Amino acid sequence: MKRMATFLVNEKHYELAIEPHMLLIEVLRDKLGLTGTKQGCEIGNCGACTVLIDGKPVLSCLTLALTVEGRHITTIEGLSQGTSLHPIQKAFIDHGAIQCGFCTPGMILSAKALLDKNPNPNEKEVKQALSGNLCRCTGYVKIIEAVLAAPEVISKEAKT
Amino acid sequence: MSHAYLVVGKRIIQPDAAAKATGTALYASDISIPGMLIGKVLRSPYPHARIKRIDKSKAENLSGVEAVITPEDTAAWQKFDRGLKDLPMIAGGYTVPPDESVLNERARHFGDGIAAVAATDEHIAEEALDLIEVEYELLPFVIDPQEAMRPDAAQISDFAKRNIGKHMSYAFPAGDVQKAFKEAECIVKGAFSTTKQEHCTAETAASVARLDVNNRLTVWSQCQLPHLARREIAHIFNMPVHRVKIITPFIGGSFGQRGSLCAEPICVALALKTGKPVKLVFSREENFIALESRTGFQYTLRMGFQRDGTLTAMEVYMLGRLGGYMGCGPMASAIGMIFGLGHYRCPNRAGEADMVLTNTPMSGAFRGFGNPEIMWGIEQLVDEAAEKLGMDPIKIRLKNIKKAGEIANMGLPLESTYLERCITQGAEAIGWKEKWRKRKEGTIRRGVGMATMTHCSGAAPLYLDHSNAWIKLNEDGSADLVVHPAPVGQHIWGALSQIAAEELGIHAEDVNIVTGDTDVTLFEYGSDASRSTYVIGNATLMAARQAKEQLLERAAEMLGVSAQELEINDRQIFSSIGQKKRISVADVCYDAIYNFKGECLNISGKCSWESKWNSPPTGAFFAEVEVNIETGRVTVLRFVTAMDCGKAINPMAVEGQLEGGIQQGIGYGLTEDYVINKDTGVVETDNYDSYKMPGMMDMPETQIIIIDEPDPKGPFGAKGVGEPGMVGVAPAIANAIYDAIGVRIKDLPMTPEKVLKALESS
Question: Does the beta-carbon distance from A144 to B202 stay under 8 Å?
Answer without folding.
Answer: no
